[in-house]
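User: Please predict the structure of the protein below. I'd like the answer in C-alpha cell form so I can feed it into my own downstream comparison script.

Assistant: Understood. Taking the following sequence of 243 residues as input:
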Amino acid sequence: MLIDSDPAASQLHIAGVSDTLIAYLSPMGNYGLIVRSEDGFDQTTKELQTAEMAYPLMESYVGTTVEAPFGQPGGRKPLVCECNTSHGVPDFVFLRIERQYSNNLRTAPFEATIKTLKMDIRFQDVKTVSDLDSNALYQVTRRNSNFRADAVKNYQTYGAVLFRKQDLGNWADWDGEQADPFQVTFTVSDYDIYHQVAALGYPGAVTDVLDDTPLRLSVVFIYQNYGFSGKYHECKFDFQTNK
C-alpha cells in the first residue's frame, strides 16, 4: 500500500504490523508518482488488455464408412472423402484412416496406413498427388512434421499424411472465384489395414478382427491466418485480415 501521510495517523495503522506493510512516501521538491493498477476501472490505464494470439482454424471432414471384409482378396474398396468449405483453400491438409468400432471389444493402438491417394478438383485428377508413392508420401509428411517428431513411429502407428499447400501445387488447379465454395475430393485406393511392424506381438485374434472392422477417410483443413485477437470484452476468433 502506498500513502502520502504518516502511517501512524491512518485509521488502518496497526502498531508493529503496518510498518512492514505500508510504504510511506514524502515527496521532496518537484516530484510526482503515477500508480497504475489492473484492478481499476479505467481501461485506458491498462496496457495489457488486448490480445493477439495465433490459433489455427481446423475444419474436419469424414468420408463414407466402407464396410468389411478387407482381409479377403479384392475386398478393399477405395476410401473417399468429399470436402466443401467457404473459407477458401487451406494452408495444410491432414489425412488419416479411422476405424469404426461397433460392438467390438478388441481394439488396437494403431491405425490403417495410407500408401497412395489421389486428389480431384473439378473432376480432374491432380497428378501432383496421385503420382506420389508410399515412400514419397512418407517423406512429405516427415518434412512437414515437427523436427522432434518420431516420423517412423508415427507412420507405423497412424499411417497419416500431412500436406502443405505447396505440396499440392499451391492449389493452382482451383480456378474458382474468392467467394466460391472450395471443393475437393480425396480418394485412398491403396492402404494397409495395419502396418506389419506396428502389429508385431499382437495375436491373430486381434488382427483378424481388424480385417473385419469398417474404415473411413478423415480429412482436416488447417488455416494458419487465424487467431484470437481484439480489445477487452471485444476479443474473438477470426481470420487475421491485417496480415
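That's the full C-alpha cell string. The mean pLDDT is 82.
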